[in-house]
Design brief:
alpha/beta; Polyamine Oxidase, Chain A, domain 2; FAD/NAD(P)-binding domain; 3 domains; eight-stranded mixed beta sheet
Length: 642
């Protein structure tokens, strides 16, 4: 342990750090406080203890694609393993439907199927120790108060534009997006005089600085206070050279049409096909490496840097500077970004489960759902019409080759080291598209290649519980980007109060902080997919203590001048590691893009074709990471089964 680690609090016993850092199994939350560190290492695994004490949302440390969730899949895909030992029957009857994957799409598929066939028996298999896929719930207990955060899927974005399929499902679940008009405190940041900032860490920039200025990342995102500084005043505080400052101010303030040589009708297409970095260099005259370095990672959601994202997306979606130099009309604001449950879209997943398996929790309303503690022992009851089986990795899905059984599918899976097999009248594959060729090797070669094209974007969502947010208040900062730092941003969580749950009302109360990292490479001439593969490897090989040290040191550097003490103020850290994160959408800098989103030449269109009694539903099959896409693809897949 480094000398500085004591100061940062690395020696503090943050719940379950050691066991979650290295063990494939996780100890049941109900037992943890009574166990010593030595005892925890030999404690029973939660998959052996799915009873009333089993509650994954309270587990901290490395979550998301946690240890134990991917080893069997890696054995199948990387090593070609097919023998998983003696196979036991998973049921003594034939299911009507087996769904592979318990994320939003898989749960929706099960729900749609049951709505169509109310007496159907459905089995949902998921390789994780919790359901929901990327819609992950994180919980903390701080001074007797429960804090709820999200570890993945964040929001229902622009729900007024949802299709009838999605709106009808949300209606069935009792989800009315209008509730967020009051549940989300749209005045929170301004009421507390919290603005956006740019944090420069000393280790990266040779000087520490917190500049209270929004480069565009948070303006319409969380309605922060306007910056007290002009663009020039803000840039003057940045630890960059005089030449870089001059260029940065010009970038932020120019209103000159720098694309005058390009007809206006052609500019949208031009910006769509040039990288943001090249746009800055060619049209804004940015030659100083420091300016590019500040902006390099601020493309955030794209999972790549400014050299690998088109200029249109970087400025219109990412909010990065330069739009005023395009000579195009000002961009219209979208719907307010307020449609968040405290646990993100995990509430959608939880409500789907509660509708299909009511025994998991009393109540029916969304308000009652927010603080409900689910009884996970009810998920897989033998006599239930719907069973959700966790810690179960599917290894093979095959149409029957026996003539009289042509309407039957065999599904093989491994749970707790034991191989099982079940039969069904149909199967919906709602897992990662890139895994499907290994699960169904009999698929046509062109379809397997198309499915393999889906290289998902790696994501690290880190949720940090703090005793209070006094330092944020003192500094007047509610959210900040951090150029060059391990996490590219950090922000106080969305101020949502719903049902019995109340967001932190003042700076003396505990709060959740959300931090993000999108690992990628820069300046190596790699395609987006090549960068994502390397980013995935980074996430899978980085131990928790490295991430924790970065969290503590980054927050200390950001907030130290406000009186923040990482050792005392941090009371919980949950790292949601999604080595397979967002679905891949086509990048015009590297991929062929067609006018029609459902052009039959697209890999996602080829890959999602039904195969016998096997259909495919996931966000990947829409080449779109949004929740509504996952639901729509589930609806399609169920319809294809007939």
């Amino acid at each position: 342990m480094k000398k500085s680690d004591d100061y940062l609090g690395m020696d503090r016993p943050i719940t379950r750090r050691d066991i979650l850092n290295g063990l494939a199994g996780l100890t049941a939350i109900g037992l943890m406080p009574q166990l010593s560190w030595a005892e925890r290492a030999s404690a029973p695994k939660p998959e052996d203890l799915i009873d009333a004490t089993y509650y994954p949302p309270r587990l901290s440390g490395l979550r998301g694609n946690h240890h134990g969730s991917f080893e069997v899949s890696h054995g199948l895909a990387r090593k070609g393993q097919t023998d998983w030992g003696l196979v036991q029957p998973g049921a003594n009857f034939v299911y009507d439907l087996v769904v592979v994957g318990g994320g939003i799409s898989g749960l929706s598929a099960a729900y749609f199927y049951r709505k169509k066939y109310p007496n159907a028996r459905v089995l949902i298999l998921d390789n994780h120790d919790d359901f929901g896929g990327h819609a992950k719930r994180n919980e903390f207990e701080v001074n007797g108060r429960t804090l709820i955060g999200y570890g993945g899927a964040q929001t229902m974005q622009e729900p007024s534009g949802y299709s009838r399929i999605v709106k009808d499902l949300l209606g069935d679940l009792g989800v009315d997006p209008k509730v967020f008009n009051t549940a989300y405190d749209q005045n929170f940041f301004k009421q507390h005089k919290l603005g956006a900032g740019i944090h420069f860490d000393r280790e990266v920039w040779s000087e520490s600085a917190m500049v209270p200025y929004d480069l565009g990342a948070f303006d319409d995102y969380i309605a922060v206070m306007p910056s007290p500084l002009s663009a020039k005043q803000a840039v003057d505080k940045m630890p960059i050279s005089a030449e870089a400052k001059t260029q940065f101010v010009d970038l932020l303030t120019t209103k000159d049409d720098r694309l005058s040589i390009i007809p206006k009708a052609d500019r949208w297409g031009y910006l769509y096909n040039i990288s943001y970095r090249n746009f800055l260099i060619k049209h804004l005259g940015i030659s100083q490496a420091e300016v590019l370095a500040v902006l390099q990672d601020l493309t955030i959601d794209s999972g790549v840097g400014i050299d690998s994202i088109n200029a249109l997306s970087a400025m219109s979606y990412g909010g990065l500077p330069g739009w005023s130099a395009t000579g195009l009309p000002e961009l219209e604001s979208d719907e307010p970004y307020i449609h968040h449950f405290p646990d993100g879209n995990a509430s959608i997943a939880r409500q789907l489960v509660r509708k299909m398996i009511p025994a998991v929790s009393p109540g029916d309303s969304i308000e009652s759902l927010i603080t409900a503690r689910f009884d996970y022992s009810q998920l897989d009851q033998a006599d239930a019409k719907v069973q959700l089986r966790l810690n179960s990795t599917v290894t093979n899905v095959q149409n029957s080759n026996v003539r009289k059984d042509t309407k039957e599918v065999t599904v093989s899976y491994v749970q707790n080291g034991q191989a099982y097999q079940v039969k069904a009248r149909g199967s919906v594959l709602a897992c990662y598209s890139s895994m499907i060729p290994y699960l169904c090797p009999e698929l046509p070669e062109a379809q397997r290649e198309a499915l393999a094209f889906q290289v998902k974007i790696p994501i690290l969502y880190t949720t940090v519980a703090l005793r209070n947010w006094k330092a944020w208040k003192k500094l007047g900062i509610g959210a900040t980007v951090c150029p060059g730092s391990y996490h590219i941003n950090a922000m106080l969580d969305f101020p949502v109060s719903l049902g019995d749950y109340r967001f932190s009302e003042n700076e003396d109360q505990p709060v959740v902080v959300h931090m993000e990292r999108f690992p990628h490479r820069y300046g190596e001439g790699l395609t987006a997919q090549q960068q994502y593969r390397l980013g995935r490897y980074e996430l899978l090989t980085t131990p928790f203590d490295i991430i924790e040290r970065n969290v503590r040191s980054q927050l200390q550097s950001m907030l130290g001048e406000g009186g923040f003490n990482a050792a005392e103020d941090i009371v919980g850290i949950t790292v949601n590691r999604w080595s397979h994160g967002y679905s891949y959408w086509y990048n015009p800098l590297f991929d062929t893009v067609y006018d029609d989103e459902e052009d039959p030449r697209y890999p996602h269109m080829i890959g999602r074709k039904p195969f016998g009694r096997i259909t495919i539903a996931n966000a990947d099959s829409a080449a779109n990471a949004m929740m509504e896409s996952a639901i729509e693809q589930a609806y399609r897949a169920v319809a294809e089964l007939g």
